[in-house]
Specification:
Helix content: over 70%
Number of strands: 0
Strand content: under 5%
Number of helices: 5
Order of helices and strands: HHHHH
């Protein structure tokens, strides 16, 4: 199988992507939800913006593809989180949409991250040789399950918070 070359943009995207994922999970574990009120939440949002934006310029698969769609979804989910947090469009329910938006960005980071990881490593004999490999599908399903459980946990935690907290 052909392993795509990493361009300078690809390295930039990958390194910042790792930082975004680590910061995002740190923030969710420490604070239960991502918020721009937390320094780590602001760093996560900024890194996510840059990573999703840079993904739109990577075309190692020949054209606009699923990774680009995930980048657009990431930008939309990030915007949703920010708008819900700052404008409170749905009143007290906004915090749930904020959690959905920001937490969705983590899922959208993880799908291309694991796909690229499994396609590239180990060098010379990667774990998968096609996007249709069942191992990749199992990872995607596992990430979806973690996302659903995590989001439900956030909703339960948010419901327990005092009004105005």
């Amino acid at each position: 199988m052909f392993m795509p070359e990493m361009t300078l943009l690809g390295w930039f995207h990958t390194i910042l992507g790792i930082g975004a994922v680590l910061t995002g999970f740190y923030t969710v574990i420490k604070y239960r939800v991502v918020s721009l009120e937390q320094a780590s939440g602001r760093i996560y949002a900024l890194l996510t913006l840059v990573v999703a934006g840079s993904a739109l310029g990577i075309y190692n698969q020949g054209g606009f593809g699923i990774a680009h769609i995930l980048a657009v979804l990431t930008l939309a989910a990030l915007a949703c989180g920010v708008v819900m947090e700052k404008a409170q469009l749905f009143g007290s329910a906004s915090k749930y949409f904020q959690a959905l938006g920001y937490t969705s960005t983590l899922l959208f980071h993880m799908i291309p991250a694991i796909t690229d990881f499994l396609r590239r490593l180990p060098i010379g004999d990667p774990f998968i040789d096609s996007f249709e490999d069942p191992l990749l599908g199992q990872f995607h399903l596992a990430f979806l399950a973690v996302f659903v459980v995590g989001l439900l946990s956030q909703v339960i935690w948010l419901r327990k918070q005092p009004v105005g907290a």
